[in-house]
Amino acid sequence: MEKYVVRCSKCGEVHGPHSLNCKNGDDALLRTEYSSKQLHPADLPGIWRYQDWLPVNGIIEEGSGRTITYKSQGFAEEYGLEDLWIAFNGYWPERDAGMMTCTFKDLESFPTMQLIRELNEERIMVVASAGNTARAFSHACTITGQPLLLVVPENSAHRLWTTHEQNPSVCLVTVEGDYFDAISLAGKIASRDGFVNEGGAKNVARRDGMATVMLDAALTMGTLPDHYFQAVGSGTGGISAWEASMRLAEDGRFGSKLPVLHLGQNIPCAPLYSLWSDSDVVSDSCPEGMYDDVLFNRKPPYSVKGGVKDALDATGGMMYAVSNDEASASQSLFEKTEGIDINPAAAVAVAALVQAVEGGNVLPEDRIVLNITGGGQKRLMQDYPVRQIEPSAGVSAKDPNAEDEILNIVEGFFGVRI
Ligand SMILES: *Cc1c(COP(=O)(O)O)cnc(C)c1O
């Protein structure tokens, strides 16, 4: 029997392993269906422990950390929460957390690269990113040698640090423009011969990788939680948490009630919150002024079949709008009470939890999972020297020839003709 099939969430048609779209399904997300209905953790390092429910057969042994779930004491006490669990994604050796790029994007990059490997993909992979995704994919490609083109907004290039030496398989192009400009340029390049698109939210290896946050939490706690908190930009992590919950409910050993999704966004740039609340909390100058602009995505998969709206509806979930002041206060308190530095995006989830406690959306005895989507970057820098990845060149999104310019850069970098 096949390990899994990939099925359209709209029409039910079955597709091949790295399919991103269904011709009958508009933009409906495709979803993996595993033949193993119960989760049996494998004796493998890092994320590969959840091999049963990852759409790959082999593993990338090196550098593949996983989520570490533990019960909060310090922060939980501040708010009188009796059953708060932290799903930590990042670097924190004292707790065996070893994600070397310090965010849960490592959970997306490794399964994606492994799937690409198993499909014998030789084309150049294209990734557009506001930073954390680019760092994670660059890290994974340095290990596997897969050629990678990163298209990153100029203002996010500072996030592209690495613990590796200069890497001949990663070509970085910066774009004068925002994340959306980078996505649309990358999309045009990826549709050409010689390139392959990683697919973003549509890529099941990415979503099932992120889904391991919920798997780790449920296995550690022994049950599904009542509530799940996360900061979102595209909302892919929220969709993944919901998909994991459905699989765990079907497993039969973790309870049958789906955890309520509580997804936080940062005002003044909160497109998902706006769609959910039917308001307009997106200023014209976005992502300027954000606490962390990795949380800005101008076209999140909200109303597509199997997307964020379906995930919220199915779980009775809700969105939160978090101000910079709230995020900053939550970040300080969390770091002080839990003893680890966290990524600013993760502080938005902490602040959403604070709002939920104060608004009575959660009760003191409820079992809560708080996804710390990134942390331990300062901690990592105590242990490892890091350096910036050098851009090969920069283009302007306004330049009508930007696409051709990137192609020239790529030809020069990899020494190929495209
Ligand atoms: C990407 C990212 C998020 C948002 O993830 P979604 O794709 O919207 O689920 C949150 N926190 C950090 C640190 C991130 O890198």
From TrEMBL:
* Top-tier EC class: transferase
Q: Which UniProt keywords apply?
A: Coenzyme M biosynthesis, Pyridoxal phosphate, Transferase
According to the UniProt entry, what is the EC number of this protein? 2.5.1.76
For whether the record's keyword set contains Transferase, the answer is yes
Q: Which PANTHER family match?
A: SERINE / THREONINE RACEMASE FAMILY MEMBER, SERINE RACEMASE
Biological process per Gene Ontology, one example term: coenzyme M biosynthetic process
- A Gene Ontology MF term for this entry? ATP binding
Extract the Pfam families matched here. Answer: PALP
According to its UniProt record, which cofactors does this protein need? pyridoxal 5'-phosphate
- List the protein's name: Cysteate synthase
Which ranges carry the Tryptophan synthase beta chain-like PALP domain? 62-374
